[in-house]
Amino acid sequence: MTPSPDRRDPAVGSARSRRDRRAAAQESTTHPSEVRAEDGVEVAEDDDCVTAAVARLAGEFAGRVDRGTVRRTVVSCRADLDAAPPPALPELVERLARQRLLQLAGRASESG
Q1: Which pLDDT belongs to residue 43?
Q2: What is the pTM of this model?
Q3: Which spans in 8-88 are helix H?
């Protein structure tokens, strides 16, 4: 017996809906030429929350973490928070990235 279209596996449905939301958001805000892959994560070149967080955190972690590591960390955090409400993204991305960078800087100072 074939399951009816109304009876979907919730795990599959939620993954599908996240994928659909992400695709819709990218279509509405970026052009394919404005998106690039960085460490396997697609990020819009003009993603304001990434640009602003990198600028602030690069200054905050100057001398402890290089700018490339800051950018990769922020991009990774942005990707991890892709399902968060857009108005909350700037703050959430920066907070998560700061925490990860603090942990990274702490490990570096312990080994060095």
Answers
A1: 61
A2: 0.61
A3: 10-29, 48-60, 67-80
